[in-house]
């Protein structure tokens, strides 16, 4: 049995890496684990997308294991101001909006962007957008 979150993550990353608008901004810099130096500083080239937090909530019905899944995708930029991070967040949202991922072991019922928060990071250098997506996945 394949974890719904694991399978969904693979589908998200594949979709983002195949999207021309996203890759024009970040190339293939879509990370599950953002590269860091030995001192803990981010060593990844900006801009990039990081897969951040996951939350799974069981929502079972008769004979069906259901999961409401929330995932945060972090968009990062070091360009001055918000324009680049807004462009990146918009590209990620467009690439994934109403996605109908073909999962091989699970069934995706829906996948939608629920929230987009954009702010300046406390490091004083980075702009950061967090997109929260919600999915419902049924496991056979």
Q: How would you describe the shape?
A: elongated
Q: Regarding CATH, which class?
A: Alpha Beta
Helix content: 25-40%
- CATH architecture classification name: 2-Layer Sandwich
Arithmetic mean pLDDT? 94
Poorly predicted tracts of residues: none
Question: What's the short version?
Answer:
By secondary structure, the chain is α+β, with helices and mostly antiparallel strands. Helix content is 26%, strand content 38%. A five-stranded mixed beta sheet has the order 1-2-3-5-4.
Question: Could you name the key traits of this structure?
Answer:
140 residues, alpha+beta, STM4215-like, five-stranded mixed sheet, elongated, Viral_Tail_Comp_sf, Gp17-like
How does this model look, in words?
The protein is an alpha+beta fold and 140 residues long. The chain has a single domain (4-34, 46-139), classed as STM4215-like. It contains three helices and five strands. It has a five-stranded mixed β-sheet. Helix 2 runs antiparallel to helix 3. The longest helix is centred in the N-terminal third of the chain and has 15 residues, at 4-18. The protein is elongated and about 50 Å long. The mean pLDDT is 94. InterPro entries: Gp17-like, Viral_Tail_Comp_sf.
What topology does this entry show?
Blueprint: H1 4-18, H2 20-26, E1 30-31, E2 48-58, E3 65-77, H3 83-96, E4 107-120, E5 127-139
Parallel strand pairs: 1-2
Antiparallel strand pairs: 2-3, 3-5, 4-5
């Amino acid at each position: 049995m394949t974890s719904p979150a694991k399978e969904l993550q693979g589908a998200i990353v594949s979709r983002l890496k195949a999207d021309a608008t996203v890759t024009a901004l970040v190339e293939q810099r879509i990370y599950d684990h953002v590269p860091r130096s030995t001192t803990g500083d981010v060593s990844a080239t900006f801009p990039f997308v990081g897969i951040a937090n996951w939350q799974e909530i069981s929502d079972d019905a008769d004979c069906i294991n259901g999961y409401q899944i929330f995932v945060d995708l972090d968009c990062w930029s070091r360009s001055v101001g918000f324009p680049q991070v807004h462009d990146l967040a918009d590209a990620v949202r467009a690439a994934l909006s109403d996605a109908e991922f073909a999962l091989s072991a699970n069934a995706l019922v829906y996948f939608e962007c629920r929230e987009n928060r954009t702010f300046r990071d406390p490091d004083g250098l980075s702009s950061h957008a967090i997109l929260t997506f919600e999915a419902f996945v049924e496991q056979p």
